[in-house]
Design a protein that fits this description.
Elements: H1 14-23, E1 30-32, E2 45-47, H2 66-73, H3 82-100, H4 105-112, H5 116-123, H6 131-141, E3 178-182, E4 193-200, E5 215-229, E6 232-236, E7 241-245, E8 250-267
Antiparallel strand pairs: 1-2, 3-4, 4-8, 5-6, 5-7, 5-8
Length: about 270
């Protein structure tokens, strides 16, 4: 032979070729990034990481995604904010009514279609329920929706009167030595109580009788007097109390020891006549 031939590699059978291919490391996914020189220009190969598999997002019955629901449920509610106060009031009514009618959380969940977890959050004031949720709760608990808000704190005016600074008002029979000092009065629909400090410092033989709607309470602070109510007569000393209906004629009939001071508090049950 003129020259020495190189021996070729032995041929592998199908089984051996498959095993050899399995032992080779997997090639990295690469992408040819063209240079800025123009289209078709070759450049260095750059490894591109594989994208993470898409995560399925499950939507709730009201159209919110699960991630949004989790974010909303984890949002803290401050007990000092108006929402926190409202949530606490609702929580107290829901839990109290549920226990009153003998239901556990699971039974209430079946009645309302609300999960036990959400009911637990509502009863612990950890979330603010929607109006539709409140409607379902009120129906299942057999109570008006408005009763869930009962007891919510409201800002109202307070009346403070310094000693001796109350306005003097005119009453039937007001004369020298007979004064009626108003100790405060709320405005608007809450004006149902009229507290007076009555001072009698001079004796007289004529005493007017009074008639008015509502209930009146007298509390003796100083002195001794005889007070009439209808046909009855009451000897009142310091610390004594008399309560009666204002539409029956009443008033002092005898001033036994001066000066006399007493509180007169009239409570009106409705519109004043």
């Amino acid at each position: 032979m003129a020259g020495r031939q190189n021996s070729s590699a032995p041929k592998l059978g199908p089984v051996e070729a498959k095993k050899a291919a399995a032992r080779k490391p997997a090639a990295a996914v690469s992408k040819v990034v063209p240079r800025a020189g123009g289209p078709g220009a070759t450049g260095a190969k750059k490894a591109v990481p594989r994208a993470a598999p898409a995560r399925s997002v499950k939507a709730t019955s009201d159209g919110r995604t699960a991630s949004n629901v989790v974010a909303m449920e984890r949002e803290p509610v401050s007990p000092h904010s108006p929402t926190g106060q409202l949530g606490q009031v609702i929580a107290n009514h829901v839990r109290g009514r549920r226990l009153e009618i003998g239901l556990n959380v699971g039974q209430l969940a079946e009645r309302t279609g609300i999960s036990k977890g959400m009911l637990s959050k509502i009863e612990n004031a950890q979330t603010s329920p929607s109006l539709s949720t409140l409607e379902r709760l009120s129906s299942a608990l057999d109570m008006p929706v408005t009763s869930l808000f009962r007891g919510l704190a409201e800002e109202r005016d307070a009346v403070f009167v310094k000693a001796g600074s109350g306005p003097e008002i005119v009453r039937k029979g007001t004369r020298a030595g007979h004064t009626y000092e108003l100790l405060g009065s709320l405005r608007g629909p809450y004006k149902r109580v009229e507290p007076l400090l009555v001072s009698l410092t001079e004796s007289t033989e004529v005493f007017p009788l009074f008639q008015h709607p509502g209930i009146e309470i007298l509390y003796m602070l100083e002195g001794i007097m005889e007070y009439s109510y209808g046909r009855e007569r009451y000897q009142m000393h310091k610390g004594d109390t008399l309560q009666f209906e204002g539409d029956i004629p009443h008033g002092p009939t005898k001033l036994a020891r001066l000066p006399i001071r007493f509180l007169s508090i009239t409570i009106y049950s409705g519109d004043r006549n």
